[in-house]
Amino acid sequence: MSSGDIDALLRVTSPNYIGTSHPDIAFGTLDGPVGRLTLAVTNRGVVACSYEDENIVFERVSREVGTFIGPDARRLDPVRRELDAYFSGRLRAFTTTIDLRLATQFARTVLQMMLAVSYGTVTTYREIAERIGRPRALRAVGNALGSNPVCVIVPCHRVVESEVVLGGYAGGPAVKERLLRIEANGAGHAPGGS
Fold this sequence. Notes:
Blueprint lengths: L2 H11 L11 E8 L2 E7 L4 E5 L3 H11 L4 E2 L2 H15 L17 H10 L8 E2 H7 L6 H9 L12 E2 L12 H15 L7
Parallel strand pairs: 1-4, 5-6
Antiparallel strand pairs: 1-2, 2-3
Helix pairs in contact: 4-6, 5-6
InterPro entries: MethylDNA_cys_MeTrfase_AS, MethylDNA_cys_MeTrfase_DNA-bd, MethylDNA_cys_MeTrfase_DNAb, MethylG_MeTrfase_N, MGMT_N_sf, WH-like_DNA-bd_sf
Enzyme class: transferase
GO molecular function: methylated-DNA-[protein]-cysteine S-methyltransferase activity
């Protein structure tokens, strides 16, 4: 979707949007080495960094966060720069703030735990479930990670089923493996932590 397409979509779906004003929610995309990411940034932080189609993310953000949505380079470009630096192996920790309003309360707990998993390391679904005090909630943890609205920045790709099985990922298994390889190269070891 080009910026002209996004602008046209915004005029139809966001009646308050005026092309020259700063929207409440900055909306755009980033084409990177793992495909297109759809981005949305609120005054609280990044609310979406998603592999989903722009229209799906736009509808969800407008339904659950607000309708004054539009392109805003002053808020999107810093996020894009950090993502580019991460993909090139120059950034290990994102400094951008995160807005987890699109996640359920349980998912927020799981996703907050993910922020403590260091660059270049992995953890398991079981370890996350134990850390949040719900050792039998493996499926719920998996669902929370699978619905992560802020992929890459909230590093759900760092959760694996086991040392030999990567497990699922919103961007697909090849993308998960690529992200883990980026981090392994930057951290100086293999994706399994060895």
